[in-house]
Amino acid sequence: MADNETPIVEEDNEQVEVRKHKLAKLRDGGQNVYPNDFKPTHSVTQAVAAAEGASDDELHANHREVAVAGRIMAIRRMGKASFFQIQDRRGRLQVYARKDRIGDDAYGLFQSFDIGDLVGVTGHLFRTKTKELTVEAAGLRLLTKCLRPLPEKWHGLADVEARYRQRYVDLMVNPEVRDVFEKRSRIVRLLRRFFEDRDFLEVETPMMQSIPGGAAAKPFITHHNALDLELHLRVAPELFLKRLLVGGFERVFELNRNFRNEGISVRHNPEFTMVEFYQAYATFEDLIQLTEELFVAIANDVAGGLQLPYNGATIDLTRPWQRLTIRDAILVHGGAEEKDVANLESLQAFAKQRGLKIDLDVPYGKLLVAVFEEVAEAKLIQPTFLTGFPIEVSPLARKNDQDPAMVDRFELYIGGRELANAFSELNDPADQRQRFLEQMQARAAGDEEANPIDDDYVRALEYGMPPAAGEGIGIDRLVMFFTDSASIRDVILFPLLRPHR
After folding, report:
1. Is the dihedral of CA 22, 25, 29, 30 positive or negative?
2. Residue 81: φ, ψ to 5°
3. Which residue among 70, 107, 191, 460 has its CA within the 20 to 30 Å range from the CA of 396?
4. Cα 343 from Cα 365, distance rounded (Å)
């Protein structure tokens, strides 16, 4: 058994053997047990639409013929007539099979059907006495035999890991899970349309990079044999997208994967999806407006309004959203006073007094952010643009004109979680080189997430990058918010898991 394969209990093994025996019997009887020539004329949704507006008598008189295919999800056998339900990508539909209608051979075939089998049905639509739309079968075909029994109970904590490992089963039996991923696809389409409508160009940049950059994160490392070259899976596309600003693409966006060699939690997966976009002649203030517009557009389309449930709270996306500096967030939500955040020594004393388990031997700016994350981040429930970021934690952002110790940057928090990060871009090549050098010093001191120097990026800035602003939004967390999902693994089809032992 493979390391990542979930073991089968003995009872399931017995059922598998019974199903394999049925399959062998059909094959021995001359049945093509894996045909590929059945052509559905209707999906379940289309079949329902075909009957819409027609009375029971009209359906009976007109014999609206359909050919539908799907997976059997329930069977009620009743001697010479039976009901079963099939499920396709859009829903479920009942089928009525009568021996005297489909014939002895087809009804005999039906006796070998199990829950989970994929079947093709031809027949006409009618409604039962309980008004349920049903296909009266004129023909039945087995399209694929399901050799493993579907689980009767697939919910609950005991089965969470099994659901992630066997997502294909999870999708079969849990309609709400399919709904999450259909909404994810819809959100991605909305994102693309939103940016294209605003004259942004979608681009693709390298996912393997010789110099990782654009985010404070530890990269995955690989090797290219032909070039004998160490490469890194990208942690962010930022530096390549800004090269395109230099080249004259003034509005660009990319929707693709990033990889960060970090821990796994309800908020983190080492492989994740982001949208990053950059706009010339814009500031981070402009992106605040754009971000509000984007979230409101998604909410109206996906959720039908601006009041959304999330993590036990009701989130109100009505504009404008709250703004707080990091210092103010610590004061408002962390129980600190002005004197506690006045300087490095007072902030260290506050962290000790609160018993915060963070590294105190760091510059003031880094400590300020660490304290915020411990005492205030989780309390930013309603949409909040967090500003006032120190330069120490923002090596690619433009200095604030009034306070050079700070940068023009925001992070968006909803439900106590960061969903977006944006700033006015640093386009001064001398300043950028100095920031890179400072990052290299931090790297030499043991900070594995510090950015290495990228000489070619500095060279690009020397050609002149227009003043600009850029933003990254985590798609997985975005979908978590709009589907009220508790874990990032609930919105990734195949999340990374430790191999099953």
Report:
1. positive
2. -145, 140
3. 191
4. 10
Q: What amino acid is encoded at 376 in this protein?
A: A
Domain boundaries, the chain: 10-144, 172-334+376-490
Q: Give the global pTM.
A: 0.91
Token output for 228: 């004998």
Q: Are 209 and 234 in contact (CB under 8 A)?
A: yes
- Tokens found for residue 318: 């009505």
What DSSP string describes 317-367? Answer: -PSSPEEEEHHHHHHHHS---GGGGSSHHHHHHHHHHHT--S--SS-HHHH
Q: Which range is least confidently modeled, 274-288, 365-379, 392-406, 435-449? A: 435-449
The number of residues making up the chain comes to 501
Are the C-beta atoms of residues 382 and 321 closer than 8 Å to each other? yes
Give the separation between CA 250 and CA 468, rounded to whole angstroms: 9
CATH architecture assigned to 10-144 = Beta Barrel (2.40)
What number of CA atoms fall less than 13 Å from residue 418's CA on the CB side? 16
Class of domain 172-334+376-490: alpha beta
Count CB-CB contacts under 10 A for residue 292: 18
Pick the closest to residue 46 from 75, 89, 13 (CA basis): 89
Q: Is the pLDDT of residue 5 over 50?
A: no
**Identity of the amino acid at 242:** K
Convert 61-95 to b/e letters by CB count within 10 Å (16 or more is b).
eeebebbbbbbbeebeeeeeebbbbbbbeeeebbb
